[in-house]
């Protein structure tokens, strides 16, 4: 172990370990090297245990992938659809450029000319957008009848801080493109949430009572929305 030693005008000897594993020892001016060595010998086992715990925590942190809202869930080989991770096959084909086919165990993306990584990402984002547009419109039509409201149009685009929004003045609904990656229960919760705003514009107790009336399990859906990570 390498330990950086300073002698300062302090009363007590102190030992610190930084996040990068470096060790710093501060000793009072006048303390001998042999006294410092004796101090370290007494605390050697503790010091090694602390270093081991720190290394294990750092290793675990590196292994744990994180997802930040707004990131496109696409690693170049897999896509996410309604909570499931599926292989993504990019196939050179005579089919119309930009078409795709969802199978039980994969998604095929067809193209006529070579695609760059940026083009593949755009293709996948288009796929997610189409999925949310189609299923979102179906859910809106079902739930607006149940809730006695009417939306005037649906727009789907990628958002970094919201899953959806509602223009209470015009009746327009916006949904996040990336909802296609989450379980469909999450999309349904957002649809009910946004339609409830056509009854109550803010997030008052009355608003939550409306959501509760039509979707009693909304709290579980909200937790799933926050907990699920497409990694």
Write the layout of secondary structure elements.
Blueprint: E1 3-8, E2 14-17, E3 23-28, H1 33-63, E4 78-81, E5 84-92, E6 100-102, E7 107-111, H2 117-147, E8 153-157, E9 164-167, E10 172-176, H3 184-196, H4 205-214, H5 218-227
Parallel strand pairs: 1-3, 5-7, 8-10
Antiparallel strand pairs: 2-3, 4-5, 6-7, 9-10
Helix pairs in contact: 2-3
Spatial shape:
elongated
Class per helix and strand makeup: alpha/beta
* Intertermini distance: 37 Å
The main pleated sheet reads as: 4 strands, mixed
Query: Any low-confidence stretches, pLDDT <50, length ≥5?
Result: none
Task: Give the oligomeric state.
Answer: single chain
Mean pLDDT: 92
Q: Strand fraction band?
A: 15-25%
Rg estimate, integer Å:
28 Å
What's the helical proportion of residues? 40-55%
How many E strands?
10
Strands in their spatial order, largest beta sheet: 4-5-7-6
What is the N-to-C succession of helices and strands? EEEHEEEEHEEEHHH
What this model shows, in words?
- With about 230 residues, the protein is α/β, with parallel strands linked by helices.
- Helices cover about 40% and strands about 20% of the residues.
- The protein contains five helices and ten strands, in the order βββαββββαβββααα.
- It has helices spanning about 35-65, 115-145, 185-195, 205-215, 220-225; strands at about 5-10, 15, 25-30, 80, 85-90, 100, 105-110, 155, 165, 170-175.
- A four-stranded mixed beta sheet has the order 4-5-7-6, covered by helices on one side. Strands 1-3-2 form a three-stranded mixed beta sheet, with helices on one face.
- Helix 2 packs across helix 3 (about 185-195).
- The radius of gyration is 28 Å and the shape is elongated.
């Amino acid at each position: 172990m390498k330990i950086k030693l300073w002698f300062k005008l302090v009363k007590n000897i102190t030992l610190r370990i930084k996040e990068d594993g470096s060790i710093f020892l501060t000793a009072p001016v006048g303390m001998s090297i042999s006294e410092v060595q004796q101090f370290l010998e007494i605390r050697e086992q503790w010091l090694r245990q602390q270093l081991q715990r720190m290394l294990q925590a750092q290793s675990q942190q590196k292994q744990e992938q994180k997802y930040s809202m707004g990131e496109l869930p696409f690693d170049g080989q897999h896509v996410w659809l309604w909570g499931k991770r599926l292989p993504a096959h990019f196939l050179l084909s005579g089919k119309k450029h930009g078409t795709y086919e969802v199978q039980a165990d994969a998604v095929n993306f067809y193209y006529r000319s070579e695609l760059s990584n940026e083009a593949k990402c755009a293709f996948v984002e288009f796929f997610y957008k189409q999925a949310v547009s189609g299923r979102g419109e179906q859910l809106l039509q079902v739930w607006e009848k149940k809730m006695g409201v009417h939306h005037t149009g649906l727009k789907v685009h990628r958002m970094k801080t919201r899953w959806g929004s509602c223009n209470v003045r015009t009746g327009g609904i916006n949904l996040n493109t990336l909802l296609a990656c989450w379980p469909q229960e999450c999309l349904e919760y957002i649809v009910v949430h946004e339609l409830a705003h056509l009854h109550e514009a803010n997030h008052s107790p009355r608003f939550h009572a409306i959501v509760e009336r039509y979707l009693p399990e909304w709290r579980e859906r909200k937790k799933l929305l926050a907990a699920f990570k497409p990694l």
